[in-house]
Amino acid sequence: MTGKKPSAQASIEAMYRVFTVPEAPDSTLSRIDQNISRNLAGFLQEHIVAVERDLSDVEKNFSDSAIPEKPVFVSEQTQFLLDKVVADSVHTASPAFIGHMTSALPYFMLPLSKIMIALNQNLVKIETSKAFTPL
Description:
By secondary structure, this protein is mostly helical. The chain contains five helices and no strands.
């Protein structure tokens, strides 16, 4: 066994899989979706306002703005977002949070937001958003 980590491959088939609805509950994209949901549920259940971490330390996570030469797995990018963005985000839903222009959203907004994201509507042009634009 070599221990070499598999690398993501750029291909028409791989691209097609990324833009299609997962066919099985145990597919990679379904597992990623479930992982994100669990992670966000855990985040929202914590009642701290923010993790004690200097902003300069958080900024270091984003100091490399180079686009990778080779593709990365969606699961790798997801894990980066969960570890570096979600983990260091401010808990605006925390009862201890006092914000100037931000407040908690009802939890039901999380699953409802999937409707807007899945439909991918452009609210500026009526021909691409016949129902959302007048809403």
